[in-house]
Structures are given as structure tokens and as C-alpha cells.
User: Which sequence fits this backbone?
């Protein structure tokens, strides 16, 4: 029975199995095409997935690199801030945290280059401290004050004056005994003898004197008048701060004046650059005035200088000739020169310096060009900037970095840090500087600087008369230059407000200073 059922099942399976269907060529072709399509579709999908993956990877990479770059920038800025900017922020006079140092440190001294004390702190028996200025109003603006705010060196070097660099053992002992430490001393580049001479020479005039050592950039004197006594500033604050004479203003660095004819130094330099091969051929016939486009510009007192070359135009300060020169200059080039000579720029210095301004451009009208070429118009300068110009000429075209601080010492006179002499910028070539030197010497020998004749010292420079109101009879008196004409030199800028024409007041101030210094 079992064998019979197996046989029947085998017969049943055999009888139900269908014979294979033979595919047509079209079916085979269609199946191949479908298989190829599925294969291509699979590849396309895989390719799309790879693209999406790559895109995502790029996005991740962009984000990662962006964060990495941001991180590097932050680290770089923090490093830059720590090494280059942090001290400025810490020393900022608005940083009240520095004043807290005064609870543990007695404010240090300020001295001139020869050790003369310009400011010190007197400590009474009861511990009361008072700031003393032995020279009273002679150094008022440059040294500054510490009552009702801070100014001058007192402000710029505030942190150093309230920092003690004595040895660790001494600091620990004084900390344990609650005794105040002695602050560091700021040794300046100033020369008390020159400063006093400049202060006396200005007399009752309003104005400023700046004296710089061209070979080093050291500021030897900086006087501004009218002045004030910082010892009594607090008691007289209302009268001084409300004075119409701007007594607190440091005119040397913050006073802006029309330069008058001292600006012809730069007009000359631009002419030299545009006519380097033939500047000796320049000539002009001065009849006392020049008229162009219905505008007439006159020489001082309508003086007719006659036939003049470039050097004589400079020495005699011929306005007509310089207006004529200005009309022939490339004004864009002239503007670039003045920019390179620190106009419209911040000057890096221990104290804040106002920007001198030069506004001529290629669209300026001829009247403005004529006026600007002789130092009038809208041009404004600080005495400090003009002293740098004189120093640059004296130093053969190289401006040394101007500075007021020589070094920092602790109260035991041990040097903590010092300021080296460094080049600020080369403003003109040696050849250009030597030509200007020659012209400045001619100013004294045969030109408007004749008042220096008979001096015990040699001097070269440029005089200036700067009108500042509609009244043509009032003007500022300028002189910039250097002495002696060889050897160790001092560059000077003097401005006397309302001092009159042809440096009538500025030259006597300069003469008195150097006669006293070299005498």
C-alpha cells in the first residue's frame, strides 16, 4: 500500500509539472533592457547618495574650518591685544582700577633728563599725600596734573607712577607692615634749562614752543602759554577751567593754527619732486601781487620782490611766486605728499596730538590752490607737527620717533625699562632735505630771517605769517628751523598768537632761547 501511494504521488507531481515556456526574442530583449535600466537606476541612486554624502561632508568641513578659523582669529587677536594693546587699555586715564594702586603705592616722581624733579608726592606725618610741582607753571601742560582729573605725563604714565618695582623681599615686608611702597620714577627727555628759557622767552604772549633733538626724536622742551600752577589747580579750578584763554589746553600738541609761510617748505618740496631735473631754472617776476581768475593775492605789504628764482622766492617768502608755483602743481600729488608728511594722520606720541589738516584735491578751485600754497586757506597745523618737520629736514629726511619718556626707574634709581631711539619714517630723500637745508640757511642769510644776524649760534629755518581773521592787520608769528647748522642739533617750532608779520615775535623768542642755552 505504501509503495502504491508513493507511486501515485510521483505520478501526480509528474503530471502537474508544466513544460518550460520558450521566450521570444522580444521578451529576452525587454528583460535585458529592464535589467540594464535597473542596473543604471541603481548606479544613479548610488551616485546621488555619494553626492549627498559628499555635500554633507563639505558642509561639515566648511563649518569645521569656519570654527577653526574663528578660533585662530580669536587666539590671534587675544595674543595681539595682550602684547600690543593691553598696556594702552590699562594705561587709559578712564581706567579707574589703576587709581586703586594708590592705596598701596606712593605715586612716583617725574624728572627731566638730568634728574631735576618735575613732580613728586609729599607725605605728611599723618600720612596725607600731596602732589608737588617744583617748577609751578613752567611744565604745567606737558607734565600735567592729578587733581580734578589727570593730564600730560601724569595721565600717560599713570600706571608706571603707581607701580613699585622694588625687590620682592621689600614688597613682602611692606605688605606685612601695611606700609606703602614707593612708586617708580618716570625720567623724561625734557631739559629743565631749555624749558625755563622757552617759558621766559614767550613772556606774556599766547603761543607755544617745541624743541626736539632731530637725531634721536627726544622732546627737549614743550611750552604752552598762557599757563597755570598745578600746585593750586584744585583751589582755582573754576576760574581756570572757565577761562576764555583755554589755559588748560596744551597749545603745542592740541592747538591748530594756519601755518602761513612755514608751509612753503612743503610747497617747495612738491615742486622739487615734480621738477627734480630743472628746479634751478625756475624764475618769476614779482610785482607785489598776482591775479588769477579775478582773484588777487599780494605779497606782504605789497612788496615787489622783482626777479626771483626758487631759492630767493623761499628766502624772501614771496607770496606771488608761491601762488604761481601752486597753480602749476599736480594737486593730487601735492595732497599725497602732505599725507606722507603726516597731515590728516594720528601721530604716534606719548601725548595725544591733534591731526593737522590738508584739504586740497583735484576739484579745488584756483583761489584755494593759491591760498594753500602760501599756507593759508583751510590748512591747519600743530606746533608739534611743525617741529617734527624741522627735525626731519635737519636729520637729512629721516624722522626719528618722537618721545617724552627716556626710561623708568625704581625709587633706588635702578632702570626698570628704557625707550630706545628708533626711526619713525623717512619722509624725504637726503638730496631733498639738503636742498631744503640750503634754502633755510638762505632765509637767515638774506631773507626774512635776518633778525638772527649777529647771533652767537648758526641757525637755519623758515619764517611764517599766518592770517587768522578778516582783519588783515592781525596774524600769528611763526618760525621753524634748527640750530646749529652743523653738529649736534636742536629743531624748534615757535608760534606767537597775534605776534605780527615776518616772524616779528617768533624770531626774538627763538633767539632768546638759544642765546641763553649756548651762552
Assistant:
Amino acid at each position: 500500500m505504501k509503495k502504491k501511494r508513493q507511486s501515485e504521488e510521483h505520478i501526480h507531481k509528474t503530471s502537474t509539472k508544466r513544460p518550460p515556456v520558450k521566450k521570444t526574442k522580444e521578451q529576452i530583449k525587454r528583460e535585458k533592457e529592464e535589467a540594464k535600466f535597473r542596473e543604471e537606476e541603481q548606479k544613479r541612486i548610488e551616485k546621488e547618495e555619494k553626492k549627498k554624502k559628499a555635500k554633507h561632508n563639505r558642509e561639515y568641513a566648511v563649518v569645521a574650518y569656519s570654527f577653526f578659523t574663528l578660533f585662530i582669529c580669536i587666539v590671534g587677536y587675544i595674543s595681539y591685544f595682550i602684547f600690543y594693546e593691553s598696556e594702552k587699555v590699562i594705561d587709559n586715564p578712564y581706567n579707574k582700577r589703576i587709581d586703586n594702586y594708590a592705596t598701596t603705592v606712593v605715586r612716583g616722581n617725574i624728572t627731566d633728563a638730568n634728574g631735576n624733579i618735575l613732580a613728586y608726592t609729599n607725605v605728611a606725618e599723618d600720612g596725607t599725600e600731596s602732589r608737588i610741582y617744583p617748577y609751578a607753571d613752567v611744565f604745567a601742560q606737558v607734565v600735567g596734573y592729578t587733581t580734578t582729573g589727570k593730564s600730560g605725563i601724569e595721565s600717560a604714565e599713570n600706571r608706571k607712577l603707581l607701580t613699585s618695582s622694588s625687590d620682592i623681599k621689600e614688597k613682602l615686608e611692606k605688605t606685612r607692615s601695611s606700609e606703602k611702597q614707593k612708586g617708580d620714577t618716570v625720567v623724561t627727555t625734557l631739559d629743565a634749562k631749555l624749558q625755563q628759557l622757552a617759558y621766559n622767552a614767550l613772556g606774556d604772549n599766547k603761543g607755544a614752543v617745541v624743541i626736539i633733538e632731530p637725531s634721536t626724536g627726544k622732546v627737549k622742551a614743550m611750552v604752552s602759554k598762557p599757563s597755570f600752577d598745578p600746585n593750586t589747580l584744585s583751589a582755582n579750578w573754576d576760574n581756570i577751567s572757565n577761562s576764555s584763554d583755554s589755559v588748560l589746553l596744551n597749545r603745542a600738541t592740541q592747538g591748530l593754527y594756519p601755518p602761513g609761510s612755514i608751509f612753503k617748505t612743503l610747497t617747495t618740496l612738491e615742486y622739487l619732486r615734480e621738477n627734480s631735473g630743472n628746479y634751478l631754472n625756475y624764475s618769476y617776476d614779482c610785482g607785489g601781487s598776482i591775479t588769477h581768475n579775478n582773484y588777487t593775492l599780494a605779497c606782504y605789504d605789497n612788496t615787489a620782490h622783482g626777479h626771483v628764482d626758487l631759492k630767493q622766492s623761499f628766502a624772501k617768502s614771496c607770496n606771488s611766486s608761491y601762488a604761481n608755483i601752486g597753480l602749476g602743481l599736480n594737486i593730487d600729488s601735492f595732497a599725497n605728499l602732505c599725507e606722507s608728511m603726516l597731515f590728516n594722520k594720528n601721530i604716534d606720541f606719548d601725548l595725544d596730538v591733534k591731526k593737522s589738516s590738508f584739504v586740497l584735491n583735484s576739484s579745488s578751485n584756483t583761489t584755494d590752490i593759491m591760498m594753500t600754497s602760501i599756507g593759508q586757506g583751510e590748512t591747519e597745523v600743530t606746533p608739534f607737527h611743525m617741529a617734527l618737520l624741522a627735525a626731519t629736514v635737519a636729520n637729512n629726511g629721516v624722522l626719528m620717533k618722537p618721545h617724552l619718556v627716556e626710561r623708568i626707574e625704581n625709587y633706588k634709581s635702578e632702570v626698570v625699562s628704557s625707550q630706545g631711539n628708533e626711526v619713525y619714517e623717512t619722509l624725504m630723500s637726503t638730496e631733498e632735505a639738503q636742498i631744503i637745508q640750503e634754502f633755510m640757511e638762505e632765509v637767515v642769510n638774506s631773507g626774512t630771517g635776518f633778525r638772527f644776524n649777529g647771533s652767537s649760534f648758526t641757525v637755519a629755518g623758515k619764517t611764517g605769517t599766518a592770517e587768522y581773521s578778516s582783519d588783515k592787520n592781525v596774524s600769528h608769528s611763526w618760525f621753524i628751523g634748527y640750530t646749529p647748522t652743523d653738529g649736534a642739533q636742536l629743531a624748534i617750532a615757535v608760534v606767537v598768537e597775534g605776534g605780527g608779520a615776518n616772524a616779528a615775535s617768533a624770531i626774538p623768542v627763538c633767539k632768546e632761547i638759544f642765546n641763553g642755552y649756548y651762552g
About this structure: The radius of gyration is 39 Å.
